[in-house]
Design brief:
pyruvate-formate lyase- activating enzyme; 12 helices; Radical SAM protein; Elp3/MiaA/NifB-like_rSAM; rSAM; catalytic activity; iron-sulfur cluster binding
Length: 357
């Protein structure tokens, strides 16, 4: 790793242009030199929390490559800073960059619990698992302050509605009491992301996420309390973590995970440029090798949008990855199964209390 030219604590190392905006903000070399001579910082690198007020909170997921029908996001943007994150592109719709803005301008939906409650009380709504979150991590650092995710879990419990969670943050254990109550009714499934077993890799790939030991502890504590856990071994990046598949699967299984899922990294939209800039600055010795192996999985390009292929990849390297995944499932998850969540209770709780008739 080369740390001499990196922005500390961030994944992206630049603000890429927003394709929807006419004007581009550029930090010029003469400005940087002026700051250096004056002993000033050209960028304070601070995180900014911005309140927004959407009219709805539950989103229908129409992509055939995503294993969910509905999702909701309590926050937009994510301070975790995972450099490969597919959600970066969505920040451009809000008028920001998919680069550093995605990590430093966090949009906060304070009305999310109220909007969720209105959705679950709707006569037209039929219970179907809603996933927190389909886009950005619902337990990112902002949750320490705003506690919106916890309030949403309280709504799900009140209306006995199934909910899935995807996170790579140990903060989820703060709400263990709520998760246990939801699990008493078969209403909760948790997906914990574990991308590597090496802390050095984690620190540069996912700079503000929980450490690997903390994530494994999270899987273990949830599992010991009977809460079903699926491990997200994603994305698999050739040349960075692809050699860890068997060790990752074995380790999460030993800590109680009932299943695991994976994707092969794809770098669509602005993410291709962000990742390319990042790897040349942090891993210059293997940058070309990694980029070329990613391209080999996606028909010679970093930018792959083909449904059914984009998350699975193709070619020799992708085939090797799929072979290791099959071996891992056979060796470490043979007699394990992630349960389906309960959708039968919600109809009797639409009014917020158990119907007598």
């Amino acid at each position: 790793m080369n740390s001499d030219y990196t922005i500390k604590g961030r994944g992206a190392q630049e603000n890429t242009p927003n394709k929807f905006l006419q004007h581009i903000y550029e930090t010029r070399d003469d400005f940087l030199e002026f700051c250096r001579l004056e002993g000033e910082s050209a960028d304070n690198n601070r995180t900014q929390y911005i309140p927004i007020f959407p009219k709805t909170i539950v989103n229908e997921v129409k992509s055939p490559d995503v294993g969910m029908m509905y999702s909701m996001n309590t926050y937009q943007g994510c301070e975790h800073g995972c450099v490969y994150c597919y959600a970066r592109n969505t920040h451009e719709y809000w008028g920001y960059s998919a680069g550093l803005d995605f990590e430093r301008k966090i949009l906060v939906k304070r009305d999310a619990p109220k909007l969720l409650e209105a959705k679950l009380k709707s006569k037209a709504w039929k219970a179907c698992t809603i996933v927190l979150s389909g886009n950005t991590d619902c337990y990112q650092p902002a949750e320490h302050k705003y506690k919106i995710t916890r309030e949403c879990l309280e709504v799900f419990l009140k209306y006995r509605h199934p909910v899935g969670i995807i996170t790579k943050n140990g903060l989820i254990l703060r709400d263990l009491h709520l998760l246990k109550e939801l699990n008493n009714y078969g209403l909760i499934g948790v997906n914990v992301s574990v991308t590597s077993l090496k802390e050095e890799t984690r620190r540069i790939l996912e700079p503000r996420t929980a450490s690997i030991p903390k994530r494994l502890k999270t899987i273990k504590v949830l599992s010991e309390n009977g809460i079903p856990v699926n491990a997200m071994l994603a994305p698999i990046i050739p040349g960075i973590n692809s050699h860890e598949i068997l060790d990752l699967a074995k380790t999460v299984s030993e800590n109680g995970a009932l299943s695991f899922a994976f994707t092969i990294v794809r770098l669509n939209g602005a993410i291709g440029g962000i990742f390319t800039d990042w790897i040349h600055k942090t891993m210059p010795d293997r940058a070309y090798k990694v980029l070329n192996q990613i391209k080999e999985c996606h028909g010679g390009t970093l930018n792959d949008s083909r449904f059914g292929i984009r998350s699975k990849g193709e070619g020799k390297i992708a085939t090797q990855i799929h072979d290791m995944v099959r071996l891992a499932r056979r060796n470490y998850f043979k007699d394990k199964k992630f349960p389906a969540l309960n959708t039968e209770l919600h109809g009797r709780y639409k009014t917020g209390q158990l119907s007598l008739f």
